[in-house]
């Protein structure tokens, strides 16, 4: 199997690349920075510029699956310019990829998988969302994901399977939301947000990377939720993080108003509630290694600790 990955150097992309190498899958990846392009036997980089619709067509040579993860991070303050960049980066990446596929022999390509997000589901404390849900959240994120998925659907005209994975909160010590949530807890100022009753649908980074390859390998089609089987409320999530870090939670929950002052519209993601089902993916035969939040966080921090312990000791560290 040879997989073309966009966003290969990001949090999720890096994990997928690592898993591909463990399975001896070859990886081609696209980069907007020519200086970051490397060419190894099983890991080759190619230049593209989605904002201008430019792509090196050689990136498709021998490719059997395409995984699209490209998109500007939503973690910057949602100014009008940043909001436009968030949307454009996702749409332009898909348009450029599609144009590339149109201009090569795509007969060897068997599957196309695009990232999406659970932010498409309406904010609710009571609903339990499956992929069949048709309502769309009336927020900026909801509109972005809706447009993102609509663009991904244009790949259905090709003769390969097309799938979208709606990703929840990714648990990893290397990036994403978890390190940001852990910082205040480590500094004894951690607390849940708002009532803390809002649902957090999460997934361990290892399960998510396995899921993308599972979908590619099985040529699955349609929408799948990239979340673990057991969502938790924000109160429980914060408690479990504190437990793993062996830190007390002293402060009361953080009200919504001050976070709006600090983050503006982006504060919405701290208080939105989406309880999302993984049943459809499980029915396809996918087995989660980390189905529960306790085990998942334990896995994240034990892996981080192991990496730290296995790291070579510098002379300075040895002498200190």
UniProtKB/TrEMBL annotation:
Taxonomic classification: Bacteria, Pseudomonadati, Bacteroidota, Flavobacteriia, Flavobacteriales
Superkingdom of the organism of origin: Bacteria
Family that this chain belongs to: Belongs to the NAD(P)-dependent epimerase/dehydratase family. SDR39U1 subfamily.
Transmembrane spans: none
Residue ranges of domain DUF1731 in the record: 254-298
Pfam families: DUF1731 (PF08338), Epimerase (PF01370)
Domain NAD-dependent epimerase/dehydratase: 3-224
Name under which the protein is recorded: TIGR01777 family oxidoreductase
């Amino acid at each position: 199997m040879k997989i073309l990955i966009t966003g290969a150097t990001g949090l999720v992309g890096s994990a997928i690349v690592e898993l591909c190498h463990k399975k001896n899958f070859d990886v081609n990846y696209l980069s907007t920075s020519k200086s970051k392009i490397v060419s190894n036997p099983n890991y080759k980089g190619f230049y593209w510029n989605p904002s201008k619709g430019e792509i090196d067509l050689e990136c498709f040579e021998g490719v059997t699956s395409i995984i699209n993860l490209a998109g500007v991070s939503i973690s910057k303050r949602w100014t009008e310019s940043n909001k436009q960049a968030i949307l454009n980066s996702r749409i332009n990446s898909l348009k450029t990829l599609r144009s590339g596929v149109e201009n090569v022999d795509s007969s060897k390509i068997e599957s196309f998988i695009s990232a999406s997000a659970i932010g498409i589901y309406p904010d609710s404390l009571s609903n339990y969302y499956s992929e069949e849900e048709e309502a769309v959240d009336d927020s900026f994120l909801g509109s972005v994901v809706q447009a993102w998925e609509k663009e991904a659907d244009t790949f259905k005209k090709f003769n390969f399977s097309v799938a979208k994975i709606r990703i929840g909160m990714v648990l990893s010590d290397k990036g994403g939301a978890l390190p940001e949530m852990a910082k205040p807890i480590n500094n004894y100022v951690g607390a849940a947000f708002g009532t803390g009753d809002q649902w957090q649908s999460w997934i361990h980074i290892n399960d998510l990377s396995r899921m993308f390859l599972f979908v590619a390998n099985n040529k699955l089609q349609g929408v799948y939720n990239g979340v673990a089987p057991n969502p938790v409320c924000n109160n429980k999530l914060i408690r479990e993080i504190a437990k793993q870090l062996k830190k007390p939670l002293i402060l009361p929950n953080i009200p919504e108003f001050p976070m709006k002052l600090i983050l503006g519209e982006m504060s919405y993601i701290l208080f939105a509630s989406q309880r999302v089902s993984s049943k459809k993916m499980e029915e396809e035969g996918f087995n989660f290694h980390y189905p529960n939040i306790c085990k998942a966080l334990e896995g994240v921090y034990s892996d981080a600790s192991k990496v730290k312990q296995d790291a070579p000791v510098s002379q300075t560290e040895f002498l200190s």
